[in-house]
Amino acid sequence: MTHFLAVAAVLCAMTDTVIDIDEVTVSDHAVRAAQTHTSLTAIQVSRDYLQQNFSGSLMQSLQGIPGVKAMSIGSGQSKPTIRGLGFNRMVVAEDGIKHEGQQWGDDHGLEIDQFAVDRIEVIKGPAALLYGSDAIGGVICLYTNHIPTDSVSGAVQVFGRSNNGQLGASAKIGLRRNSFFFRANITAINYGDYKIPADSIQYYSYYIKLKDSRLRNTAGLERDGSLMVGYAGYNFHTDLRVSDSYSKSGFFANAHGLEVRLSDIDYDRSTRDIDLPHQWVNHLKVLSHSSWRNDVVSVDASLAYQQNRREECSEPVSHGYMPTPSDEMERHFDKSTYTANIGLKMSLGQHSLSGGANAEYQHNRRSGWGFIIPDFETGSLGAYLLDKYKPSDNLKLNAGLRFDHAQTHIHSYNDWYKTPVGTDSVYKQRSADIDLTFSNLTWSVGAVYSAGAWLMKANVGKSFRIPIPKELGADGINYHIFRYERGNAELAPEVSYQLDLSVYRSGKLLSVQVEPYVNYFPNYIYLNPTAQYEEGLQLYHYTQAEVLRYGIECQADYKITRHFEAELKGEYLYAEQLSGAKKGYTLPFSTPRSADAGLKYSHKRHGEGSIGLNVHLVGKQENIVPPEKPTDGYWTLNLTANHRFRLTGSSINVSLRADNLLNKRYYDHTSYYRLIDVPEAGRNFAVMVGWEF
Amino acid sequence: MKKSIFSAFLLCALCACSSSDKTEDMTMPEISADGSDVCPVDCQRFKRGSVIAFHYQFSDNVELGGYNIEVHNNFDHHTHSTSAAECEIESEKKPVNPWVYNSDYEIPQEQQTYTATINIDIPADIDPGDYHFMVRLTDQAGWQQLKSMAIKIEE
Q: Could you list the residue range(s) of the whole structural domain that residue B56 is in?
């Protein structure tokens, strides 16, 4: 609360200061064009921004965007959330294809090479029309398909982080011969255990002593590579991209899931080795995209295959009636996803009509001694029609309709060990054989109005999400979080309605954006902690509840002098369950309010460079739901510095980022490790040197 | 212009402070170890074939839910202890016929306090050694409280 008043007050004071500057580049036509192409709140992120804000994982680098958060899972990985919605309530798309891993899982990151990404568009709001199921909170659209323009171009980057001793390198090359092009990327990253500003962790009165303030066994590595060949003609374009991303990382050794454990493994012998428990993920993606266009019509077609293999290994331990397993493979998932998209766009005077269809087939198989999701196959088909109408130069209207149909077949699963039931002993069934079909009609209506320095957008849309097999079919203990989870085959597709408004004002000195939204779910799928016990653990049951959410993001940039620029950002989010067992409570992992104040000095001596200082304020989160704990507010001081040296035909980029300069100890309410009282990482310096040619 | 921006931010500020007075239950239930007849306590020893006369007092600000009692071996020296007490512990060993006890119990409706008294038979043929005795308690809102005791089963 005080943060927002501070924001308002500072802004007021600032606007009273009038300074003449002769060099202004605030209003950028390209930015404006990108903003008007959709009535949804959308933010463009360039490769330069990603380089300058490099801070570990891709999603951590995007955290500076109001409304976007990274749920961190250790130091090298994180999962994105948009306006508090993550997991299967948002979409990450790569070159227009939905990225399909095990999105439901709360302990692994995004399997994408962040250095292969050319640009990003973050859509905040319902984007079901183009992306179908899951695009409720929004979409993070990654583009890795930039066509090289020079005959030879490329970049080499080396980078490191102080906190976890991360070292990495990435190289890319682009070739162009007439209309043919070729691209290749390769990235390797290694990191050690990360440090927190604490020498012990207290969890359920149990003290875990840390050696040198490091979280044992949180080291990891990542290896990525991709190849792309293509033809870019005047009317016809086609490309084929193959990428593979592999990562392996340890889980904090003293608490696998929520269980505090002791082990005979000597974790402290090295800070860079990966012992048990650990996980690895390999994501293979083959993507083909073709398009044909003339002045009136364009046709786009994409085909993709994705294979996501993920494994969790831990020391075999008996649990309840489960005897000690014979090996370390706790969980293994092998998921294949086949996607086909076709789209058609047509210009008809003031109208621009587009339509398309998407088909997707998912095949998921599990193994290992720990059961969490059943085997399943899901097939889905969707078709949409969208009209963009431009009655005047200032006004754009759009309306669209989409229909989706999906079929899921969930396989039955029985325990591999017996559980006593009365006087008998049985292989308990943990998932039943279920066939389900879902249909959904979604729509969206929006307007974009621009006048002088002002741009206003309004959008109302419906989006949906097909329940995932874990929500439909699970019936057993989740040893990771120590609870009994019971699915519900009666679940209807989750539906969401959202109203978004955005107001932008871009001026010579001052740019402002204000983005409020209201979001209503008639049937949010919620895993409800009950009072009941089942096989020794608290029963969590999937239910559906009415949910109301609303929030706002604000940002103001002010050019004080030719060299100095000030930035203020703030965001607020409120969520409440309006019905069901937890009526009146919020949703899990509610994003606390936050604000940022930054000052940046930029210059053009020996190339171009900048130094920025940022204060990040986060409010206390007391709006919680069982089993969460309130999380105190905090503030951190952060610094960024960049310099680009221009050479003939190439440039050298140096960027430095220092997070948590004061080494403050704080907890992130939305972090996976918050549940076991692990504070966030301490002071960290990230350095990157890149050579682009 | 200045005014409109100021109003926008004021709106932000207003949103941020419009937290209503919540009446939801935000308090966890309690497992009280007070009283002379509390059983079992940390480091308590029991004979095989005898009885653990479980006796604990539960309380909640609104309404209690249910509870669970679980006993498993600690032959591998793992821990999820909720107490700081360090008991004398035997050397590690492989379980042959370890005692596994896991039972869910209901608490009558609309209780703010409840005294749980259960006689738990210790089988005569189980492996003696170090065990963990876990009590889990919920309230109707779904909050959970844990308590764990290290006990020893002797021949």
A: 43-81+95-155
